[in-house]
Write the structure tokens for this entry.
Amino acid sequence: MTRRSIGIIVNGVTGRMGYRQHLVRSLLAIREQGGVPLADGTSIWPEPVLVGRSESRLREIAERHGLTDWTTDLSAALARDDVEVYFDAQVTQQREKAIRRALEAGKHVYTEKPLAEDTEGALDLARAARAAGVRTGVVQDKLFLPGLRKLKRLIDGGFFGRILSVRGEFGYWVFEGDWQPAQRPSWNYRSEDGGGIVVDMFPHWQYVLEELFGRVRTVSCVTATHVPQRVDEAGRSYPATADDAAYGIFELDGGVVAQLNSSWCVRVHRDELVEFQVDGTEGSAVAGLRSCRVQHRAVTPKPVWNPDLPVTEPFRSQWTEVPDNEEFDNGFKVQWEAFLRHVVANEPFPWDFLAGARGVQLAELGLRSAREGVRLTIPELDL
Ligand SMILES: NC(=O)c1ccc[n+]([C@@H]2O[C@H](COP(=O)([O-])OP(=O)(O)OC[C@H]3O[C@@H](n4cnc5c(N)ncnc54)[C@H](O)[C@@H]3O)[C@@H](O)[C@H]2O)c1
């Protein structure tokens, strides 16, 4: 098998996402499986170039995985001819200027979401990428989760009839950092550092809603900072300036209404950290990260409201599990493979910078809706 090597800058590789999901679970996992196979028998072989600010942390990660290519000098890495792709998993605030440098160096760019801090910045990057003639991609990992893949299969198979509504619950309790350390980095709770649950989650909701149910046409949103004081990684108390919960209503093409709650201040009484209930005329489904259960119209129970009597139906047990019917690989890895095939073999890849800009736009308008207390129409974005 012929190997086609491709140099990939992994900037922000010391972070949670950069290290675990992108380096270890995607790029190194691709190498372990022998590369990304192409139809002509070639295999795409990623050669990661680890980039970050701390020499010692980069060296430590490289040694742990038998890698040798790392640097704190992004310009030098971008100047290399054998580097074709720039990948960014830095904190959100650093992203736009780093991607701009990569585009100026003529690199293809793949990046974590959100693409930029505001819609104008995201569109600017999309225009610059088009002018540079390079390939772009933004992480949309939730699309590749087994639960959502099964949900998509049900939609494509016509299971729901006409889809009426979508209810999503996302969240878990993120510790304040005092008596137990927080399980998310503290910048997420400071808006001045690019934090906030709307900026974090609405880009995900945008592509999930659009790919499964239809374009998002309006948003109305209420946000809250339920926990106003937190403790950072160094044990210092800081004011939480960013929203830590968002209660959004979205109207979609075709009249579907989606209500999505996102919260870092909620205790989980669900089977999974995110769950979507979809109700349609012919049937309903509840999909999580991995599982998906359905109830068809023909087996729908007929409860009668009577608060004087105890519940008569075992509602939860009346749903049927959708079988896997296939092997589901790590979603980040699946999307990496698609992006690399896009770059090397020109295969289609719909999740480009313009798609990423729509995610940023939904977050921006969600925050504006919350600030102004209004429902906002979402304009079409165009380059
Ligand atoms: N797709 C997803 O499901 C998902 C989940 C979580 C986070 N994210 C996104 O991934 C990105 C990183 O999030 P994370 O949770 O890994 O954060 P993190 O804090 O763990 O990592 C951030 C990385 O950026 C680097 N960094 C921090 N400050 C910097 C600065 N001033 N200049 C240059 N580099 C700096 C850090 O060294 C680290 O490598 C964010 O944009 C976030 O929105 C995506």
Observations:
- The first helix runs from residue 16 to 32.
